[in-house]
Amino acid sequence: MHGFTRKAGTAFAALVVAALAIAATALARADVPETAAAPSASCSNASIGFMGPITGDVAFIGKEQLGFAKYAIRKLGGGKIKLIEGDTQLDPAQASTVGARFHANQAILAVVGPAGSQEVLAVAPIFKKTEPMPFISGSATATSLTKGSIPTFRRVVPNDSVQSPTIAKYIRQILKAKKVFIVDDQTSYSRPLAAGVQANLRAGGVKVTRQSVNQKVTDFSALVSKISDDTDVVFLPWQVAANGQIFGQQMKEQGKTAIIFGSDGLDSGDFKIAGSYVSAFA
Length: 282
Fold this sequence. Notes:
Layout (H helix, E strand, L loop, with lengths): L3 E2 L4 H8 L22 E2 L5 E6 L6 H18 L5 E6 L4 H13 L3 E5 L4 H11 L7 E3 L15 E3 L4 H15 L4 E6 L5 H14 L3 E6 L8 H4 L8 E4 L4 H13 L5 E4 L14 E2 L4
Parallel strand pairs: 3-4, 3-5, 5-6, 6-7, 8-9, 8-10, 10-11, 11-12
Antiparallel strand pairs: 1-2
């Protein structure tokens, strides 16, 4: 049987990826020069790579996405395509390591993931090398990712330019907030989303206080103490839901009554503060 090349075989790879609504991956190989010596993968070892946080604080994201990928392979792979897993733990350095390994594996025709915007930025230089690798994410939302600088990247979720005004509108019109406290977690996912929501809220006449904390911090008591008693909503565009839970618990300990509104990163069983809200985009 003829082998698949990354260029010609992307259509076959997209059959599996399509189950995740990411058939656009097939278009990514169009940029490969015809003169390039395209490596081939035989029908017996053609593979799709999966990158995501399978373990760690945000494993709920990776496990959910991995489950869909396995389902797609099982239903549409026809036994002719394999899924190769790579655990990134939502860490850019680890994502780079996995990305380099995937790019060097000639059997991998395309990649599902990674999950976070910071990871996409980390692997982009690797996947843009000779024989570019098409990859597509189900959860990376930074607007800049699809501005053209990463030609082989696609995603199936709205970007921050859609999320920001939608979240701000809900906070302002539905929750009737007049004063909002925003805390980003210093990642390339969180900062642009926080900035977008902040700009939209201020444009609507809402008073906004902005703070920032590293994603690895788990004691927010000092930060919580800065929330004024007349704050209506605390917006947390965070990726680690467990951190949001700790933040909410420490708010309660300090008698803070503002409503927590989390971005889609907090849409997990790890975050269950009574009376809180989370956004979800799909």
